[in-house]
């Protein structure tokens, strides 16, 4: 009898999770022709079963009207940190943890994110649980620790310190047992902190390649990008604000080096510096999704006024250096040359809030001259290719998708107005996600005392 009840319970649970339906009248992006194709789609057992022309009627007991909206492949934020949201001076921090980040991402219509530095035990254990198969939250892909030198960038927590080629190989081999999705290493000669020498970086990248693990190199300058690409980095992340040397686009194309520029961090601060009404209206502060996911007290730090002299003067200096103009020119030239540009927000940084930051990254890339088609391609299919995941709107693949206004490929600011979110064919109820994405007192206590991560 006990076995019978167990079977019945499992059967009921499986039936509750299974979502079979037909969704008619949706527009499917064709990234080769750059056209939207009207289609009807059948979903069964959480996967795409049929994708047919809209003239072919599909019958089902559950038929849903897509209302001529765009059915978008699942977005992946290719650079974030599973911590939370920061005030400007770090005096206030909305810590939400890994589960909170997973909920914030999905609330924002982002189905996955690449964590590029967290406590390796916590992040790998959480990733391996594969929670999105049983509940509504985004998938985490993880690098685990940050590899750097003592006192170098990101040496303030769970890092792996490497100062010699031998240490690079030993530490990387040790980490490989956790099966990181990528590995991240710091090679940043732009600041005042120490960084790896070229011999250690070369050994690290060679060992990552031997282990068949993609490498992501945090850089600070165009010279750093040149060195990392020449030594075989799979990706570099961040975008310098000085003028880009002429040889960089061709080099990245030749080497097959991907760039994750994370333009939001500086661009958003430029919008929020000494801002007028037009800049505020165009900033993250005016996005409704921001208010749903970020504490009001934290948002009160922005915009950046002269009272906050340290950051006010820093951003003023960037403006004086022509940072925005230089970065706009770099993105246009990198894109025109055919460099693979992936979309990563650097969530957890100043004014880059979890989930919302991804959409702002897409918005800024369009403002900087990239085609919305190229941006969406870099946040979907090219991200899947880099991470080696079998996603996308094709028969037999998981039914992860969002529905958007049909004009989204003209104006990517519409991406924050996501209409519906589906995960494994389940239509996601967004409001419950806020319990973890924007937690109240009791959830904070769970995080504070370590009951959740």
Automatic annotation (TrEMBL):
Read off the InterPro entries from this record.
Amidohydro-rel, Metal-dep_hydrolase_composite, Metal_Hydrolase, Metallo-dep_Hydrolase
Q: Which UniProt keywords apply?
A: Hydrolase, Signal
Task: Give the Amidohydrolase-related domain ranges.
Answer: 70-422
Q: Which organism is it from?
A: Idiomarina loihiensis (strain ATCC BAA-735 / DSM 15497 / L2-TR)
Q: What is this protein called?
A: Secreted metal-dependent hydrolase, amidohydrolase family
The secretion signal range is: 1-18
GO MF annotations in UniProt: hydrolase activity, acting on carbon-nitrogen (but not peptide) bonds
Q: Does the keyword field hold Hydrolase?
A: yes
């Amino acid at each position: 009898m006990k076995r019978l009840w167990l079977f019945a319970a499992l059967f009921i649970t499986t039936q509750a999770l299974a979502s079979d339906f037909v969704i008619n009248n949706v527009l499917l992006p064709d990234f080769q022709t750059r056209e939207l194709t009207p289609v009807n789609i059948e979903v069964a057992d959480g996967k795409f079963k049929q994708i047919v022309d809209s003239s072919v009627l599909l019958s089902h007991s559950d038929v849903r009207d897509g209302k001529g909206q765009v059915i978008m492949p699942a977005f992946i934020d290719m650079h974030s940190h599973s911590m939370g949201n920061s005030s400007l001076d770090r005096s206030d921090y909305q810590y939400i943890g890994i589960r909170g980040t997973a909920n914030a991402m999905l609330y924002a219509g982002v189905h996955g994110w690449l964590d590029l530095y967290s406590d390796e035990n916590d992040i790998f254990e959480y990733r391996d649980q594969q929670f999105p198969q049983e509940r509504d939250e985004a998938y985490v892909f993880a690098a685990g620790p940050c590899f750097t030198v003592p006192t170098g960038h990101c040496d303030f927590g769970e890092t792996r310190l490497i100062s010699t080629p031998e240490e690079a190989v030993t530490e990387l081999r040790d980490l490989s047992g956790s099966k990181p999705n990528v590995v991240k290493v710091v090679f940043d000669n732009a600041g005042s902190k120490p960084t790896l020498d070229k011999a250690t970086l070369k050994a690290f990248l060679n060992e990552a390649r031997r282990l068949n693990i993609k490498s992501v190199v945090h850089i600070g300058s165009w010279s750093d990008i040149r060195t990392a690409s020449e030594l075989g980095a799979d990706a570099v992340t961040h975008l310098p604000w000085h003028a880009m040397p002429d040889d960089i686009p061709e080099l990245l194309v030749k080497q097959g080096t991907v760039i994750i520029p994370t333009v939001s961090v500086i661009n958003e601060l430029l919008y929020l510096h000494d801002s007028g009404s037009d800049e505020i209206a165009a900033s993250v502060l005016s996005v409704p999704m921001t208010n749903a996911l970020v504490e009001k007290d934290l948002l009160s730090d922005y915009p950046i006024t002269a009272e906050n002299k340290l950051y006010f003067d820093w951003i003023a200096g960037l403006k004086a250096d022509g940072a925005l103009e230089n970065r706009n020119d770099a993105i246009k030239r990198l894109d025109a040359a055919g460099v693979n540009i992936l979309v990563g927000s650097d969530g957890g940084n100043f004014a880059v809030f979890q989930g919302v930051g991804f959409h702002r990254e897409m918005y800024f890339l369009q403002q900087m001259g990239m085609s919305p088609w190229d941006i969406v391609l870099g946040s979907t299919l090219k991200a899947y290719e880099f991470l080696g995941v079998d996603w996308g709107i094709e028969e037999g693949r998981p039914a992860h998708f969002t529905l958007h206004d049909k004009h989204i490929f003209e104006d990517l600011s519409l991406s924050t107005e996501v209409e519906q979110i589906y995960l494994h064919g389940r239509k996601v109820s967004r409001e419950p996600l806020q319990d973890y994405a924007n937690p109240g007192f009791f959830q904070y206590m769970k995080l504070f005392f370590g009951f959740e991560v």
